[in-house]
Design brief:
Number of strands: 16
Helix content: 40-55%
Strand content: 15-25%
Structural class: alpha+beta
Oligomer: single chain
Order of helices and strands: HHEEHEEEEEHEEEEHEEHHHHHEEEH
């Protein structure tokens, strides 16, 4: 079945569209999975930063029984390398012992100690840590982590560490760059407290997750508003796929046309073979095809009747196959040479011997037939002229009798004339 070109073209368009859709889904899935991985990394980095501070302060709580003044220098050094810490203060029995301002912008915040509206605190069930929900001060957002020493270790000692949400986010991103993303920190209630970009911009890729271990306080969002399937690589890939599909279509189209021509040629060849076989088999004259080895390749019924020999017996040598032909027919090498050169001379009339030994005079004609691949066969046509020969012989006999009669009549007339003279 041969499909029209438009059907093939639509098929390749559909195939290209399917391939493009598959690539689009794969690319989107891959980008989404990569964003989820980066979001997990970011959430883990935020958690690790907060835990590191918590471990530092909790480790120093038991040593603060003297008011903590001997730890002041250590905390100054620690906060100098942790820009997310805005300030630290130590209280004993709710009385301020000392405070350290790491962020000069938060000085007014330290004077107030706590916001006007005290934030809600969340307790960590595994430690004695309290976290406040983020609150705004001087256009920035902060939240407090409060570390308390166990009650059985003397006076109640509490560290209050105030974190800048913006600096916390930027410090983490400095150590764990997230290129091409816009990162936003939200409070648990969905309030934006820090961002590296336009958090409200339209984005085809946007994911949000609570910060591990701080889900009651913080969540982080990762977005890529610049994400597009149509990157330079994808455009080049799509163009290449389109060109490849077009090339495959053109090649297929050319091959199909060649196949159509081939099938047409094969059909014509089969028709020619059928016509030849029909003419060959139904010819009144005896016909024979012979190859360069002298083997009979094909005969018609008239030839079988002429030589009084079954077709199978005539084709027996040819049916034996082509094994060792040169050795089997080495005796007729001269015939093969003349056959190949096309100089084979065959008589126009001859006498053939039938299966029973009877001689039959025939007239013959010979011609070469090209069968392709440099091969040819010798077509011989035989016409039985035995009746004509008999008729000719009978005619010659009649002519002889007529001549003899005329001769006798002439002799009789001559004798008659001689007798007349004598008389």
């Amino acid at each position: 079945m041969i499909f029209p070109p438009i059907v093939l073209f639509l098929f390749f368009i559909a195939a290209f569209a399917s391939l493009f859709y598959f690539l689009y889904n794969e690319s989107s899935s891959f980008e989404h999975e990569r964003a989820q991985r980066d979001l997990r990394i970011l959430s883990s980095a935020l958690q690790t930063t907060l835990l590191a501070d918590g471990k530092f302060f909790l480790a120093n709580l038991p040593r603060a029984s003297d008011g903590g003044m001997n730890l002041h220098h250590d905390w100054q050094q620690y906060t100098a390398t942790h820009p997310e810490i805005a300030s630290v203060e130590l209280k004993r029995n709710n009385v301020l012992q000392w405070n350290f301002i790491a962020d000069s912008l938060s000085e007014s915040f330290l004077r107030e100690t706590v916001p006007t509206n005290p934030p809600k605190y969340y307790a960590d069930s595994s430690t004695t840590v309290l976290y406040s929900k983020p609150f705004q001060l001087n256009n920035d957002y902060y939240f407090e982590a409060r570390f308390s020493s166990p009650e059985n270790e003397g006076p109640s000692v509490t560290f209050s560490v105030f974190y800048s949400a913006e600096k916390l986010l930027r410090d983490v991103l400095h150590r764990h760059p997230m290129e091409n993303y816009e990162i936003t920190l939200f409070s648990r209630t969905g309030q934006e407290i820090a961002s590296t970009g336009y958090s409200n911009a339209e984005s085809p890729l946007r994911l949000q997750s609570a910060v591990q271990g701080y889900h009651t306080m913080l969540s982080v969002e990762i977005a890529n508003p610049n994400y597009s399937f149509w990157t330079t690589e994808m455009i080049v890939g799509a163009v290449m796929c389109g060109l490849l599909s077009l090339a495959v279509f053109m090649i297929t189209f050319v091959l199909l046309r060649a196949n159509v021509k081939l099938k047409s040629a094969e059909s014509s060849l089969r028709s020619s073979e059928e016509r030849f076989r029909t003419i060959f088999e139904n010819s009144a004259d005896a016909m024979r095809l012979m190859d360069r080895y002298g083997r009979i390749v094909m005969v018609n019924s008239a030839y079988c009747d002429l030589v009084k020999t079954p077709r199978g017996e005539l084709l027996r040598e040819y049916a034996a196959g082509d094994t060792n032909l040169e050795e089997r027919y080495s005796a007729n090498s001269a015939f093969r040479s003349q056959f190949d050169a096309g100089t084979l001379k065959m008589p126009s009339s001859q006498v053939i011997k039938r299966h029973g030994g009877e001689d039959v005079p025939v007239e013959t004609s010979h011609s070469f037939i090209d069968v392709g691949k440099g091969e040819k066969l010798l077509l011989s046509i035989f016409r039985d002229v035995s009746e004509r020969k008999k008729f000719e012989m009978d005619s010659q006999q009649v002519q002889k009798m007529d001549a003899l009669g005329e001769f006798a009549v002439g002799i009789g007339n001559n004798l008659k004339n001689i007798v007349g003279i004598v008389m």
